[in-house]
């Protein structure tokens, strides 16, 4: 499978919720030895006839903020290396955080397509607050609600154009 979507972002922004919505089936974890592999979930999905793999990162990271930071950094660098398209997920309810800033600076240097996905936009009132994320310098915003599915179709329409 050559079309790979990687979902990156700090903890609790809703990466796994979106992953679960996107995938048809989960793949078994192949290598259970490295920490990096344990922190990744793989699945496959399809949208308007295009098939892809999805990687959900950070699933099993526990510990202090320092450990989070280096683990997330590692996942972002792997995503930049292996993904066809990167979904950078942030949380409209918290606004821009320092960790969002740090991830954004790694992604701005990537040559891969990056989609700035603002999650938890559960109602139209939150659309205006989502605009705060333009400050991360990654271009267009895709406001979605992984919970209700709102906006996810528009996002996937654009993502699969890269496949
Ligand atoms: P992850 O750590 O990035 O994988 O985040 P999770 O998928 O585990 O979600 C973290 C929390 O955010 C959970 O309590 C989810 O139910 C909640 N959540 C995820 N997506 C949404 C959303 O679109 N709207 C709201 N209101 N909550 C969400
Ligand atoms: Mg998760």
UniProtKB/TrEMBL annotation:
Coiled coil: none
Domain of life: Bacteria
Domain annotation EngA-type G: ranges: 3-163
Sequence positions that bind GTP 1: 9-16, 56-60, 119-122
Family: Belongs to the TRAFAC class TrmE-Era-EngA-EngB-Septin-like GTPase superfamily. EngA (Der) GTPase family.
Role of this protein: GTPase that plays an essential role in the late steps of ribosome biogenesis.
Subunit structure, as described in the record: Associates with the 50S ribosomal subunit.
Protein name (record): GTPase Der
Species this chain originates from: Albibacterium bauzanense
Gene from which this protein is expressed: der
Portion of the parent chain present: 1 to 163 of 433
